Structure formats: structure tokens, C-alpha cells
User: What shape does this take?
Amino acid sequence: MMPGIERGERRKKHARVAGFIALSAVVAVTVLLRPGYQWVSLTVGVCGAIAVAASDLPRGRGGPGPYGERTKKRARVGGFIGCGTIIISGLFQPDWQWLPFAVGVPVAAAVLTSGGLRGGGRRRHGRGSGLSRGGRDDDGPVGAAHRWRVLAMVSRLMPGPGGRRWLAEADSLLSEIAPAGRGAAIRSYLLSAPRLVVMMWAREARRRARPGPRRPG
Amino acid sequence: MALRLTVQVQLVVQALLRDPAREMYGLELSEETGLQPGTAYPILLRLEHEGWVASSWEDIDPRAEKRPARRYYRLTAGGAVQARAALATARRPKGTALRRLAEGGGTP
Assistant: This one.
């Protein structure tokens, strides 16, 4: 990873975590002002968990290797289970209808801003990715990092294995393509993505509808 | 669903048919066809779903090679036969269509 990107990413990560903690505090204060609601600690806890799950964990804990992946996965699963519990309880308690919004908005923001919430094996623009090594994109490392994040986000719209493979192939190809052509290549990946998403899900639906033992896509 | 032989599909199939035994990776194919990688990928995926093409990841150590593994594509035996037959009956792309394709970097 280029030092500039690494520093920028670390700053972003800290900002993300701080933002979510602040958001949790706002939610907690809002809840405290409404007497009778005892879910304050749970809300804060869940928002914190989502913040951790959404942000990249510090290197060494969420880094490469089975332990890091497991930690990340647990954080994600914990966040989603807690969040799901609150949303469901909010839906079934008429007095708590504000809860889904209080939790849903941070979750949506977390999903949108995170670089790797889903897909433990997917690569972000970190060490070894095509955009972080061997020259810059035509609009510099910031543009390259941004586009890489968009590619990673788009890959999450695809069925798991298909998305991972698409991203891995894009990574492989972009690492070898001449820097001058990289921007155009990424644009072409993004342009063809909607059709690909539809194609992959149609295939996935057919595969699931088919009787008999399932085969990974 | 039958595979529609668009100009881009024909370009990819022709590139693979030049040497059916040869394995090609995305960048090679994209350079040979003049298509952008993002355009070639869905085509390769469709060809793979139809059984015309088989693909596999390169078996390397990315750290040692200092680059990610490539995914190699090659025509299957049946795929090569089907591709030749399909190309023989397909409408040949006009020169203008190919020129437009080359100017647009292969984006449909």
C-alpha cells in the first residue's frame, strides 16, 4: 500500500469510528430524554459494534490470516444480530417505532461507507491490490482508491462467489495494465457491472430453483 | 438460453480460436480483441456458462511473483467446435462496426 493511501485510510477509519461513536451518543441522549426506554445501553452497544464491524479492524486483528478473518466475521455477525434484534423488537412494539430509524440510518451509513463489511475474502485496496502498486491511476491515488472502493461496493451487489471472482479478476488485471489505461479499464468494469449483476443473480436464482444438491456458483 | 453472437462476442471467440489449446488471461484477450477488460469479462462469463470456455486461477505465489494470480481462459473441445460452427453461420461484423468498436475502446 502506498504510504499516502495508508495514512489517508487510517485517518478515514478513525473518522468513521469516531463518527459512529458520536452518532451512538446522539442516539443515547435522544433515548435518555424519553423516559421509559431501557434500551439505551443496547442501542449504544449495537451502534458501537456496527462501527467496529464497518470499519477496518486494526492491523494484526483484522489483517490477513484465519484469525483476522474470524475476528472480522464475528464482529460483523455480532453487529448484525444485535441490530436485527433491535429492529424486530422496534417493529413489534408500537411505542418503539423510532428505534428502527435510529438504528437503520447508522447501519445504512455503515454499509455504504465501509470498505469491506461483507465478504471476508474480498480484497480491498490494500496490500497487493492492483491499484495500490505499480503506478498510479490517471487521477492519482485518491481517485484510484475511490474507484477501488466503488468496485468493491459494486461487487457486493453480486452473488458472493461471483462478486469475489469479479473483484479478484479486476484486481489481477488492473495490477498489470498500464497506468494510463487503468482509469478507462475501471470505468469499463463499472459500466458493465449492472448487466453483470442481473446476469449473475438470474443464474443464481436458476441454480437455487434447480432441485438436487447445490453446487457453489 | 442460446448465446447471442454480438460483434464483441465474435471478437473474443475469434481470439480464442486462433489457438484453441492456448490459455489466455483477461488482459491478453483484451489487448487482442481491442475490447476493454470490463467488456470482455461478461462475455467470457457467458461463454463459460455455455460450456464453450473453461477457466482456472493461475497457481502462483502472489508474494513471490509480486502480482495477483491471473485467471486463464481456454476453449473446451466441445466449445471450439460449437464456436467454429456458430461463427460460420454468424453475420460477419461490418468494417464500420469494428471501427466504431475500436474507437470506443470496446464499450458497447
Q: What stands out?
A: The two ends of chain A are 31 Å apart (CA to CA). The helical segments of chain A are 3-32, 40-54, 66-92, 98-113, 140-155, 160-176, 179-209. DSSP finds seven helices and no strands in chain A.
